[in-house]
Amino acid sequence: MMEPYTVLIVDDVRTNLLVIGQCLKGLYNVREAISGAQCLKLARTEPQPDLILLDVVMPDLDGYQVCKALKADPMTAEIPVIFVTGKDSDDDEQHGLQLGAVDYITKPIRPAIVRARVSAHIQLKQQRDKLQHMALHDQLTGLYNRHFLVESARQRLARVVRHRTPLTVVLIDIDHFKKINDAHGHLTGDKVLTKVAKLLESNTRREDVVARLGGEEFVILLECPLDVAAQKMEQLRQQVERLEPEGLHVTASFGLVEASPYNADFSHLLVMADDGVYKAKAQGRNHVICCRAETSAIKPKTSPQE
């Protein structure tokens, strides 16, 4: 069952919090903040609110300042904000909308209006979330897609250059996948891909990125050094071998390469990881091979591939 959407109500007057909270009781998970500063803190706290009802007149930070801060922070910029205020001039409403608010509710509170406005914007957020999920995820496996992978790699490699954070790029190729499709059909092949994808996702951390690169190839971005990543991937290789999706014996070949401030081009790192996969297949497949910048030689894809 899907968790109810979370609405954060922000008002320095307790009575207003109670009145609005009663309007939404039983429909949403309601959270409360009594100041602009508390709103900014709760907006960044998991689970983040799906919608914020924000009073304008508050003593520390007013609603306009809070909205501006929310929209300036990438972590909170996409949370829709509805102003709730006694100010009802066109100029006030225009100013709020220009700051990024999606709607304006005037006091005194009318419960039916509050419920209708909140419902409308929650539905819009549902649609937006669905479209965003489709844009960033592979439709077959549910993993992140190539578009998300490239953007995420760009951000993480920037941290490698700037802060020397560890990052290992892993390329995984299911062995003999064409034979699975040819012998058992593409529907079975799709089920194999889906089950392998779930295994990869369930055996990585939240901060890691698991994506389907295309076909039977997957990429994992691991925030750890090469030696640690190699141990993790050896365990994962064994789990793939034991998986037997659709009753089939399936194995995979793994190529690993660690990024560095001097080797932070994602395209080049993928080529190096692919070189590791090539070597794993040349050695009989079902291997984990680590490639290093100073020793990796790019080889053309020939018969060992698949």
TrEMBL record:
EC number: 2.7.7.65
InterPro entries on file: CheY-like_superfamily, Diguanylate_Cyclase, GGDEF_dom, Nucleotide_cyclase, Rev_trsase/Diguanyl_cyclase, Sig_transdc_resp-reg_receiver
Residue ranges of domain GGDEF in the record: 165-293
Organism domain of life: Bacteria
Keywords recorded for this protein, A-Z: Nucleotidyltransferase, Phosphoprotein, Transferase
Top-level EC class: transferase
Modified residues (4-aspartylphosphate): 55
Gene3D superfamilies, A to Z: 3.30.70.270, 3.40.50.2300
Segments forming domain Response regulatory: 6-122
Reactions catalysed: 2 GTP = 3',3'-c-di-GMP + 2 diphosphate
GO molecular function terms listed in the Swiss-Prot or TrEMBL record: diguanylate cyclase activity
Pfam families on file: GGDEF (PF00990), Response_reg (PF00072)
PANTHER family, A to Z: DIGUANYLATE CYCLASE DGCM-RELATED (PTHR45138:SF9), REGULATORY COMPONENTS OF SENSORY TRANSDUCTION SYSTEM (PTHR45138)
Record protein name field: diguanylate cyclase
Protein species of origin: Shewanella jiangmenensis
